[in-house]
User: Fold this.
Amino acid sequence: MLQGKRIAFGVCGGIAAYKAADVVSKLQQAGALVDVILTEHAEAFVTALTFSTLSHRPVYTTLWEPTGDAAARHIELGARADLLVIAPATAHTLARLAHGLADDMLTTLALACPAPLLLVPAMEHHMYQHPATQANLRLLAERGATILPPEVGHLASGIVGIGRFPETAAILAEMRRRLGRSGDLAGRRVVVTAGGTREPIDPVRYIGNRSSGLMGFALAEEARDRGAEVTVVVGAVSVREPFGMTIRHVSTALEMREAVREVIAKADALVMAAAVADYRVEHPARHKIKKGSQAENADGSLNMRLVRNPDILAELADARALLRVGFAAETTDLTEHAARKLVSKQLDLLVANDVVRENSGFGSATNEVTLFHADGRVEPLPPLPKRDVARAIWDRVVSLLRERDSETEMPERDPATFPTA
Ligand code: PMT
Assistant:
């Protein structure tokens, strides 16, 4: 996504300018061609050498280079950029941009640049909250700029408030999202589920599973980078959550069912990578179950009755407008079980993984999956990083969505066409 992209990257004079160096470094590592423009005030905090070392490219600081060709450079840099990012964007530069001032390299480039603009404001709490700054941000947003709002936290002024420069991963995610607007999922709303559900036994214990969230998050990030508006319904996970999407946290299967039902209202596709508990404890104990308590049998054993959870995907079989993709986590007879799940849940696509295979399934960075299509095709994929598996799944979903757009009829599903062994 960032590979080969030309990024014009403006840095203004705020203390967060030093953090922009990390963003530029990560962009360079991701293969982007980053042209850094420092304002005069930025140079009071950081040097051009810092940024040219990290970007492996020249850094621009002035319109008035004695060689004479700098006057045209702001036009050239603006014209070739895929995205203009200003991070940190100070109150002063936001005001200059809002009013169309062009008194240095960065602001002239901003006026001359047809590429989308991403602003990352960072400043002291009161400066950010000031009506003038807020009005300028509104004006810039109305003109089409994307604003990544600052975070709340400890500020250089010593107070805790809003104004902190977001972390590098959040800025990169927003850049990917902005660049993805011309991707093949642009204009689509998708819902992904990730992680595992937890069914309470008592206030301290639960029945859970080994899902890390990696597969679901890879799907969500890939969809975001291809232009989709993504909502992820997240159960228990053991990895960091992605940025640049809406996240709904749930714990139990019943909560996941409720959240999915709410967020699919306007969605084009639902991909359920979450490991959902099929059973829950019928009556979880209100207090911690103690050894030797009345709940215990004479032989020291404990009885617990489990009841079936609703099947979230199967229940949505009537949602014809929604393209539904399920996963199947299998330990034996993968083909037989997967083909049965595809039909019983009336899915458009089923992604089956053998979760006892090495480097596949739960917690692993890679996955080896077989795709079961509604038309009976069975497509094994080689072992791949989960992000590549996600890419393959969205490729198929994009084709199905296009087919659906051009058809009014749903494809027929004939269970007899599926292999059973
Ligand atoms: O998170 P990772 O560590 O990366 O691991 C990824 C994964 C192994 C969890 C993932 O690849 C995977 O296989 N997810 C599906 C796990 C699962 O619940 O499989 P299942 O065969 O039990 O369920 C079939 C499908 O029905 C799944 O899409 C599941 O989300 C859905 N389901 C299941 C039960 C239920 N009550 N409601 C459901 O909607």
Remarks:
- Residues 211-216, 253, 272-276, 278, 309, 311-313, 326-329, 341, 353, 355, 361-363 surround PMT (CB under 6 Å).
